[in-house]
Amino acid sequence: MPAVYLLPLLLPLISAQIFGWGPCPAPHVQPGFNIQKYLGRWYEIEKIPTSFARGKCIEANYALRIDGTIRVLNSQIYKDKLRSAEATAVIKDFREPAKLGVSFSFFSPYSPYWVLSTDYTSFAIVYSCTDFLYLFHWEYAWILGRSRFLPPYSVYYAKNLLSNEGVNIFRMRATDQKGCKDH
Fold it and tell me: Which of 18, 80, 114, 119 is 20 to 30 A removed from 31 (C-alpha atoms)?
């Protein structure tokens, strides 16, 4: 079946994120990434909209498991209820520790989770891209903070870095973090 016929079936999955033709770009990742320093709570500051995180007060908590994998607990307030999802992250190649894979189910493959830049104490810039037979791809990008709000210069820096790496930030939107409590 030609890929053109599959596209309408995939549109509901890719309608929120950025869609592009051809294979995924390959942005640079954080050199010397240290997963131990990255662990802990991160708040979503801005993102390319996704179909799976539409709420407010979105945060993620990363913790090392005994087996060496990373527990990812994402939470958000959606329709006035606390919703959470647990995932497993792994470093796929220890020569490039900033390129992680994340899976939310035993049956689903690991999706890319690349840390493009972080200072570990205030901000992180994360990118993900999945392609289909190198014909087209869909991208996600997040700006994360250790606090619910980042100074404007940090957001500007993050968006500039994403743009310079070829990521289309036109659809990035701020996440509502007002009136939130830690989950």
Answer: 18
Nearest to 72 by CA among 102, 30, 32: 102
In the chain, the percentage of residues whose pLDDT exceeds 90 is 69
Least Cα distance to 142 among 60, 32, 39 occurs for: 60
Where in the sequence is the domain holding 99, given as residue range(s)? 3-174
pLDDT score for 115 = 98
Highest mean pLDDT: which of 40-54, 129-143, 147-161?
Answer: 147-161
Instruction: Produce one character per residue of 86-110: b if its CB has 16 or more CB atoms within 10 Å, e if not.
Output: ebbbebeeeeebbbbbbbeeeeeee
In the predicted structure, residue 181 carries a pLDDT above the cut 70? yes
Is residue 19 in a domain? yes
* Nearby residues of 65 by Cβ (< 8 Å), 6 or more positions away: 71, 88
Whole-angstrom Cα distance, residue 101 to residue 68?
A: 13
Taking only the tens place, the pLDDT of each residue in 73-86 is: 999 999 999 999 99
> Do the strands 111-118 and 99-103 form a parallel or antiparallel pair, or are they unpaired?
antiparallel
pTM of the model: 0.87
In a domain, residue 182? The reply is: no
